[in-house]
Amino acid sequence: MILDSDQLRTFLAVAETGSFTRAAEEVHRTQSAVSMQIKKLEERLDRELFTRNGRDIQLTSEGRTLVSYAQKILALNNAALTAVSGEEMAGMVRLGLPDDYAERLLPRVLAAFHRTHPSVEVIVDCHGSRAIANKVRAGELDIGITTYGDTGGTIVRREPMHWVTSESLCAAQQNPVPLAVGGEHCSWRMAAVDGLKRIGRDWRITYTSSSAAALNSAVSAGLAISVLPESAIRSDVRILTQCDGFPPLPVCEIAMLRAKHATLPVHDALADHIERSLNNLAPPQVA
Known about the structure:
It is a single chain. The chain is an alpha/beta fold and 287 residues long. Among the domains are: 1-87, Arc Repressor Mutant, subunit A (Orthogonal Bundle); 160-250, Periplasmic binding protein-like II (D-Maltodextrin-Binding Protein, domain 2), CATH 3.40.190. It has helices at 5-17, 20-27, 31-45, 61-85, 99-116, 129-137, 148-151, 187-198, 212-220, 265-279, and strands at 50-53, 56-59, 91-97, 120-126, 143-147, 154-165, 177-181, 203-208, 226-229, 238-240, 251-258. The strands form three sheets. Strands 3, 4, 5, 6, 9, 10 and 11 form a seven-stranded mixed β-sheet that branches. Helix 1 packs across helix 2 (20-27).
């Protein structure tokens, strides 16, 4: 029995995105074609690879076993093609982004990019949006992902911002409201303060950090509430709405910046992967 490499590539896309729709975007096929490829692969193996409960898709134990083998098969296939043709994209790309987006975005971008360009080295630099933008403009980074309001650039995704609190809601019920936010010039911080002022609710800054991980930790511990865009929200928090007494927030715009020198095919390839990954990013599953 020989496994089809196209089917394995589609299988990995579904496994990594958790969605037939987003996998279809990644492999440039229709959703029905993706479903058919998975069905054929399951028939060939005589095993179910995914369990489906509405829109929720999970790997079966057989599916989890196949993932590592599929990765090895495709990597070996790429190596064979490269050895024969001598045509493989290689080089290095320096990518910068805030850790706000790194936790959810990086695994998807790097996995998909490595699958198609295994010989390209990606160097990742995590800093605040302003620092990333400065490094891109100085030529120290090739590509940067930032919050548009802080840096400019080309907008590649718009997503909602949310008030977030711990599952216990203890911080959300305090008066004044304790806030965990970014630095003085952070657009998310300004959105939080402006929103509370607008409804006449008292607030105080309890924790300040440029790290979304640190803000999420303060929120999860029930010490404060915060304002975060969809891409930065972890699963162990609760989203607050107007029903909880919190005002609506503006949309967060995520931008991509490229250095003037970043004009090589390897830069184009990574930029394309980033844009498609951002477009296909699913909303977080929260408490």
